[in-house]
Amino acid sequence: MTPAWQRLEASASSPVKRHFLHGLALLDRTSYYAILVAMGMMTLLVSAQVFSRYVLSNSIDSADELSRLCFVWAIFLAIPHGIKVGIHVGIDALVTHLPGSLQRRLAQLMAWLSAAMMAALFWVSLGAAASKWQELMPTLPVTAAVFYIAVLVCAGHSCLHLVAQALRLEPLPSAPERPQGADS
């Protein structure tokens, strides 16, 4: 397997593009681990709530809200990873009949338009998070803005991936590399 730094050197011809891809790969890796933590916490919270409710005949007040928060964060952190590799919903019935060069230009245009929409979503969610900052969650002394912050992070991260696609930069893998000798 080719080391990540060699793939990075081959992907970007300018230092600015290399630094952009390196920063994006670091953001991807951080997001990847945050998704794992959020999913793990959600699983533990739901399991503890089920055990507490059915075995101990008691309930953990904040378990539902915390597990919902972990779920929301896991989903919104995962969206940019899907955008990066193109596993989003799309209808290509017309596009597949166009010449290859036109398909590439149309994909580039759509990436720029989508990046602009994500930038707008980032701005709107920034305002939403700011307006909800004083409001607390019902069972926790935590701001209700944490739900909007997930959208904010998703929009910013997605925008960066869409810019990379519009510039035709090949993304680096975000998942940890497999150890030598691991089965595929």
UniProtKB/TrEMBL annotation:
A Pfam family the protein falls into: DctQ
Location of the protein in the cell: Cell inner membrane
The keyword Transmembrane helix is assigned to this record: yes
Residues of the Tripartite ATP-independent periplasmic transporters DctQ component domain: 42-169
Coiled-coil features, chain-numbered ranges: none
Assigned keywords, A-Z: Cell inner membrane, Cell membrane, Membrane, Transmembrane, Transmembrane helix, Transport
Membrane association type: Multi-pass membrane protein
Transmembrane segments: 32-56, 68-89, 109-130, 142-164
Key word Transmembrane present: yes
InterPro entries, sorted: DctQ, TRAP_DctQ
Family recorded in the similarity comment: Belongs to the TRAP transporter small permease family.
Function: Part of the tripartite ATP-independent periplasmic (TRAP) transport system.
Quaternary state and interactors: The complex comprises the extracytoplasmic solute receptor protein and the two transmembrane proteins.
Identification of the protein by name: TRAP transporter small permease protein
Annotated organism of origin: Billgrantia sulfidoxydans
Species classification: Bacteria, Pseudomonadati, Pseudomonadota, Gammaproteobacteria, Oceanospirillales
